Fold this sequence. Notes:
Elements: H1 8-11, E1 14-16, E2 21-23, E3 27-29, H2 41-44, E4 47-52, E5 55-63, E6 68-72, E7 78-87, E8 90-96, E9 102-110, E10 113-115, H3 120-132, E11 140-143, E12 148-150, H4 154-165, E13 171-173, E14 201-205, E15 212-217, E16 224-228, E17 234-239, E18 244-248, E19 255-263, E20 268-276
Parallel strand pairs: 3-12
Antiparallel strand pairs: 1-2, 4-5, 4-13, 5-6, 6-7, 7-8, 8-9, 9-10, 10-13, 11-12, 14-15, 15-18, 16-17, 16-19, 19-20
Helix pairs in contact: 3-4
Amino acid sequence: MKSLSPFFWLIILLSACGDGAEYFPKTTFDSPFPKRNRDLTAVLGEKLVIKSGTDTLVLTISSFKNYNLITNSSHGDTLFKGTVCKFRGLYYFSQPFNDTSFFIYAVKLTNNLVYGLNSAWEQTMLIERAIENGQHQKIVRYRSADVIRLYPDKRELKNLFSAIIDSIAPDTLLNFQETAPVLADTSKAVTPIDPDDFEFLSKAYPNPTSDFITIELQQKAKITYQVTNLNGKTVLQGQFTGTKNKIDLSGQPEGIFYLTLIDAANNQKETTTIIKTK
């Protein structure tokens, strides 16, 4: 029977290869995923019904400032207590093993499908296998025959979990409700930017715009920018000097442009779309 486990490594001993040996995962992280805790009820609601194989699971979700709680609605058992963060399209669930060790696994939501919520054990084993095969050595803090201690670098974990999550069969959200699009005044529209999907960018508004667009950064940094058209030609470029900056698009024709922010020191780029009107 496939079902959510209350992080089995906290309370359950598993037999290895049927020889009766007790086994715990040897791979942990030295801290939780380094992003703010999100309100999971705003993402999944307070009640979640999942079709997992032939089983139907009813889960209750409660969100607090510093953690999220998932319980089995049928018998009240705690299935997860920890932080949930989002970064570049994936949700990262972090739960403490003890005061200095954490387990992290990823979850992806696509319409009425959820990937990874029911595969914490599988993901832990896939992480362990990848590290032992010499991959993602950048995040290895310490490694021995019995212990693998990892550092949760955001970008490296994005690469690691993107490969893992695509190999996992999804479960179905039976109570999924797609929200209808809301029509807005385009003169005051703000690009739907989720700061947790970006390193630098926080807001871009108004978008569309006929002249100036304001770009807000998450924090003050030495960031250069390029505005390119659909043909890839750079039409504007410069450097931001603070957390709140303006770009003058009044001299550009109407159409779609790409704004790319560049952190040369860390060799990082991120891009969003902006729209110029008459």
